[in-house]
């Protein structure tokens, strides 16, 4: 095709097409006019025939005939007709002068006018109807014809269809959800400010009104301010004054429970070497399980033992467990590396100090208590922007345990315990989330998960696990996605349609015989909603897909400013003192006599080594060896290993000097 056609060519093209369309328009109008005139005439004659008597029609005929005969020179013509049984003969002059015939003609003309006006009205109405019908037919000819695939319809029509299949009492902007949709789980996907929060608010409002209970992850303490009720609800946020006293040993009853806590508290990231993370989990779970049977157990004592106690003290405590060899002073370098991993994630437990004066609380007991009650109870697991990074391991562990504990309930298809989690990828990987979502239906668990991007979910869970979670969320709200990749994914998720599409082509030439328009159809498979449409969606607008044979619809969710019923966050002062001096003294007193002499002779050196070891333990980069080379994480690991080697060499040198001095003495 010519990319830069001349103006004369454009003028010719426009003129040919315009005049061709004009000729066809005139042709259509002429056809309509001819049929309309014929229709009016026929309707008028039919109206006169049925509204006028035979005598009136006959008299009118004689009168008109007389006028014609008189004009043509046949004035002496005689008409013969019967009148009340008598034969009457009347010539043309008599017909024209007789008053009777004048009256009958006037009556006929009256009926004729009346019939004409009625016929004209009917004809005009029919012409208008025909015009509208032809326009619709032309529009229908140009429209796509649905063959199969996904469909899209108005919220009103979709609501009617859902009600026929069975509707839930939870309604989002005039569209009810499908019956029992909650146990098939829900996804709310969209970018920042698109409207996910407003949708979550509608869900939580109706969950509360329904009388169901929910576990709510509240990043930003927004849901807490809007829905928290002090009498019924619980808050888990170590930085909040209202935080409950979470009891580790009330939460975990058996050794596998401690292993589950360790797995979610110390997550695995990417494709890194699992040895260090597995070892850290083993040490934590073994120490916590052994401390379960002790009367003076506490988070402070557990952290002091794992993070700051001498390796020989920790090894002695874990003697006989699978973790004993991992903290042996014979492999001090490895033990320090394991400790650094533990410290990265366990330091979040330190913020639980100072809550001991409150009643003990566990998610396990709370879920079992509220599972079958009709009163609405909410558990808010919250954080704000300042403390979220520090609390991430702890929050991830709580949510993971909540999802696992749901599976320990007795089967009850009528139970409803909601799991509300916006911004899921901002947490660490919840190890058994996919399995929980897949199996929790018969226990009454209902997951409503929100994410800004599927790629965030992949980053945390990996491709396979992210796909698994994504596939298990049947009801889906898709808000705007500014990224082309994410928009393409959403477009694909909304489905495709097969249609018969009309194509119109023009032909023209110097002779009007060649002028014409040809219309043809072809079958096309295309996305129901294009990725460009997803990227250009307005805020507070979402496409809804439900697990039922009904079309997709687009919802407009209005912004509603809700009044707060409580403070979202009340800051608490946290007394952090993990390595208490009296406990350190107690740990030192438990050491074997053979080790006390070495410690006394190298006290200064040990203190320095200990400080450096703690510095390594507090690093935010766990010593995980990546497969790739030259990365930032690998450099951090190499630096950490060099620090460990220097500490060990210095410790060995100082220890040998001390032994040499003892021998001289």
Topology, element by element:
Blueprint: H1 7-51, H2 54-72, E1 78-83, E2 86-91, H3 92-97, H4 99-142, E3 145-149, E4 152-153, H5 155-165, E5 167-172, E6 175-178, E7 186-189, H6 196-210, E8 213-219, H7 222-227, E9 234-236, E10 245-246, H8 248-251, H9 255-265, H10 274-291, H11 299-308, H12 311-317, H13 332-346, E11 360-361, H14 363-370, E12 378-383, H15 388-406, E13 417-421, H16 433-439, E14 445-451, H17 454-471, E15 475-478, H18 484-494, E16 496-507, E17 516-527, H19 531-535, E18 541-545, E19 552-556, H20 581-589, H21 593-601, H22 603-617, H23 632-664
Parallel strand pairs: 4-19, 7-14, 7-15, 8-12, 8-13, 9-12, 10-11, 13-14
Antiparallel strand pairs: 1-2, 3-16, 5-6, 15-18, 16-17, 18-19
Describe the 3D structure.
By secondary structure, the protein is α/β, with parallel strands linked by helices. Among the domains are: 7-143, no CATH class; 588-664. The protein contains 23 helices and 19 strands. The strands form five sheets. It has a ten-stranded mixed beta sheet, with helices on both faces. A three-stranded antiparallel beta sheet has the order 3-16-17. A two-stranded antiparallel sheet has the order 1-2. α9 (255-265) packs antiparallel against α15.
């Amino acid at each position: 095709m010519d990319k830069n056609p001349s103006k004369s060519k454009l003028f010719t093209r426009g003129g040919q097409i315009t005049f061709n369309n004009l000729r066809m328009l005139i042709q259509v109008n002429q056809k309509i006019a001819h049929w309309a005139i014929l229709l009016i005439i026929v309707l008028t004659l039919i109206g006169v025939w049925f509204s006028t008597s035979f005598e009136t029609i006959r008299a009118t005929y004689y009168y008109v005939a007389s006028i014609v005969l008189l004009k043509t020179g046949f004035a002496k013509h005689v008409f013969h007709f019967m009148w009340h049984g008598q034969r009457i003969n009347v010539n043309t002059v008599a017909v024209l002068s007789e008053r009777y015939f004048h009256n009958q003609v006037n009556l006929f003309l009256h009926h004729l006018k009346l019939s004409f006006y009625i016929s004209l009205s009917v004809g005009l109405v029919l012409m208008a109807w025909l015009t509208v019908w032809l326009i619709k037919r032309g529009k229908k000819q140009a429209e796509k014809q649905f063959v199969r695939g996904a469909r899209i319809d108005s919220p009103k029509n979709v609501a009617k269809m859902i009600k026929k299949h069975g509707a839930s009492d939870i309604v989002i902007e005039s569209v009810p959800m499908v019956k029992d949709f909650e146990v098939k789980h829900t996804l709310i996907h969209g970018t920042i400010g698109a409207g996910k929060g407003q949708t979550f608010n509608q869900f939580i409002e109706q969950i509360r009104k329904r009388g169901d209970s929910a576990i709510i992850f509240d990043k930003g303490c927004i849901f807490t301010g809007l829905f928290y009720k002090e009498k019924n609800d619980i808050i888990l946020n170590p930085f909040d004054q209202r935080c409950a006293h979470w009891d580790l040993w009330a939460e975990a009853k058996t050794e596998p429970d401690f292993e589950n806590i360790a797995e979610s508290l110390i997550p695995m990231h990417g494709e890194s070497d699992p040895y260090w993370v597995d070892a850290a989990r083993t040490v934590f779970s073994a120490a916590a399980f052994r401390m379960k049977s002790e009367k003076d157990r506490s988070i402070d004592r557990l952290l002091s033992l794992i993070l700051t106690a001498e390796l020989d003290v920790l090894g002695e405590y874990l003697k006989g467990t699978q973790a004993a060899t991992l903290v042996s002073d014979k492999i001090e370098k490895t033990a320090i590396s394991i400790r650094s991993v533990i410290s990265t994630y366990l330091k979040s437990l330190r913020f639980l100090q100072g809550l001991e004066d409150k009643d003990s609380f566990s998610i396990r007991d709370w879920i079992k208590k509220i599972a079958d009650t009709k009163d609405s109870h909410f558990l808010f697991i919250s954080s704000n922007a300042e403390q979220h990074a520090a609390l991430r391991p702890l929050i991830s562990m709580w949510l993971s345990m909540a999802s696992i504990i749901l599976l320990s309930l007795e089967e009850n298809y009528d139970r409803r315990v909601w799991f509300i989690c916006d911004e899921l990828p901002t947490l660490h990987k919840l190890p058994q989330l996919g399995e929980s979502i897949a199996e929790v239906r018969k226990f009454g668990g209902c997951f409503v998960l929100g994410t800004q991007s599927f790629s965030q979910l992949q980053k945390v869970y990996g491709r396979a696990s992210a796909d698994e979670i994504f596939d298990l969320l049947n009801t889906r709200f898709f808000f705007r996605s500014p990224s082309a990749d994410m928009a393409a994914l959403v477009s694909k998720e909304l489905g495709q349609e097969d249609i018969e599409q009309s194509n119109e082509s023009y032909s023209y030439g110097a002779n009007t015989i060649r002028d014409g328009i040809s219309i043809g159809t072809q079958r096309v498979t295309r996305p129901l909603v294009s990725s460009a449409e997803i990227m250009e969606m307005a805020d507070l607008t979402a496409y809804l897909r439900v697990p039922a044979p009904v079309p997709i619809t687009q919802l407009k969710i209005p912004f509603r400013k809700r009044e707060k019923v409580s403070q979202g966050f009340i800051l608490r002062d946290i007394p952090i003192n993990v390595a208490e001096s009296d406990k350190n003294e107690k740990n030192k007193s438990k050491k074997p006599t053979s080790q006390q002499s070495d410690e006394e002779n190298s006290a200064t050196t040990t203190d320095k080594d200990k400080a450096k070891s703690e510095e390594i333990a507090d690093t935010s980069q766990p010593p995980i060896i990546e497969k790739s080379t030259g990365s930032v994480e690998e450099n951090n690991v190499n630096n950490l290993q060099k620090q460990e080697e220097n500490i060990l060499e210095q410790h060995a040198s100082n220890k040998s000097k001390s032994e040499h001095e003892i021998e001289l003495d």
